[in-house]
Amino acid sequence: xxxxxxxxxxxxxxxxxxxxxxxxxxxxxxxxxxxxxxxxxxxxxxxxxxxxxxxxxxxxxxxxxxxxxxxxxxxxxxxxxxxxxxxxxxxxxxxxxxxxxxxxxxxxxxxxxxxxxxxxxxxxxxxxxxxxxxxxxxxxxxxxxxxxxxxxxxxxxxxxxxxxxxxxxxxxxxxxxxxxxxxxxxxxxxxxxxxxxxxxxxxxxxxxxxxxxxxxxxxxxxxxxxxxxxxxxxxxxxxxxxxxxxxxxxxxxxxxxxxx
Length: 260
Ligand SMILES: NC(=O)c1ccc[n+]([C@@H]2O[C@H](COP(=O)([O-])OP(=O)(O)OC[C@H]3O[C@@H](n4cnc5c(N)ncnc54)[C@H](O)[C@@H]3O)[C@@H](O)[C@H]2O)c1
Hints:
- The chain is an alpha/beta fold.
- The chain has one domain (8-188, 227-253): Rossmann fold (3-Layer(aba) Sandwich), CATH 3.40.50.
- Helices cover 48% and strands 15% of the residues.
- The chain has a seven-stranded parallel β-sheet, sandwiched between helices.
- Strand 4 (86-89), helix 4 (104-132) and strand 5 form a beta-alpha-beta unit.
């Protein structure tokens, strides 16, 4: 039997990269998936692709910086499908910035989506999960939140540290309602965002993209950066019954870059 049969999942930022891989793995495991995405073209395209394969996958345009959008997403999912079993808080933004270059505008842009949006989406979904007697929340944090120095910028690292802390507090607040809250902390993962950050590092360092990427790969103990599916595999486990007694943890998928 598929591991997420009859489950209803919301995946934020599902249009590309890690979110797209998670949504695709969830569909493969039998879940109904709501694709919450700001980019309409990406959202419609993935919903069409997954539906063509026989899955129930719908796109709901959502800006994770908007509490009204988050409430509408949760309300519509509940009214269309009757329940919400899984939330994957994946949407996030960043760009390559030096310590002295971070502006207030950068800070607000990053924290509005990565920190505020993540919390209020957990809160809104947890209300439904509490009423139905349980659920699974998976926050996509980052090893940046544990101090990985080669991150895109300090404001982003702070937002991911916040995601890890809110995973712990969320887990302890929601455990009595049978709601598990865990984080995944990806390391270097080859997505569009990764290539955007690499291009920013090229501009600031004067090195070529190839030089930066090969130095980065060489720094990974297992000598291999992640594909989005490496994150999605763990996201399936954390959404399944197999992880019923796992909560409040932040799991690194990084080829051995960080140890805590
Ligand atoms: N790629 C990496 O190396 C890496 C490493 C560590 C952590 N992560 C984390 O993994 C997650 C996914 O990263 P990715 O590399 O797939 O990124 P990505 O930029 O390739 O994909 C992110 C998706 O989120 C959507 N999105 C952006 N802002 C949004 C908003 N306000 N509301 C709704 N959707 C929005 C984008 O349109 C896009 O489809 C993020 O939380 C990121 O911080 C990525």
